[in-house]
Amino acid sequence: MAFPDGTADFRSDTVTRPTQRMLEAMASAPVGDDVYHDDPTVNLLEEESAAVAGKEAAIFVPTGTMGNQLAIMLHTNPGEEILANEA
């Protein structure tokens, strides 16, 4: 869904309606299975993210919650806990 001035509405995926151009871009986008590193778009995102961060590699995760879960799993052993203050 676009606003009257032509800008896109990205408040939430529940209110967003793709434009015809967006639908065409999605339909023609090269795709693959990112689990097997076959998705050229995800591969490029990870490569560019690593370059920006000055790191050897990067991994894309679809949500912040998943990123937090990965970070906790990397920094703890089974049975250990994380103590955090309420945000």
Key terms:
40% helix, mainly alpha, 87 residues, extended
Task: Explain the layout of strands and helices.
Layout lengths: L19 H9 L11 H14 L10 H12 L12
Protein architecture, described:
The chain has 87 residues and is mostly helical. It has two domains: 1-30, no CATH class; 31-87, no CATH class. The protein is built from three helices and no strands. It has helices spanning 20-28, 40-53, 64-75. The chain is extended and about 50 Å long.
**Beta-strand residue percentage:** under 5%
Q: Would you count the extended β strands for me? A: 0
Which H/E pattern describes the elements? HHH
Compute the number of helices. Answer: 3
Q: Report the mean per-residue pLDDT as an integer.
A: 88
* Tally of distinct domains: 2
Describe the biggest sheet?
Answer: none
Summarize this entry quickly.
Helix content is 40%, strand content 0%. The protein folds into two domains: 1-30, no CATH class; 31-87, no CATH class. It is mostly helical and 87 residues long.
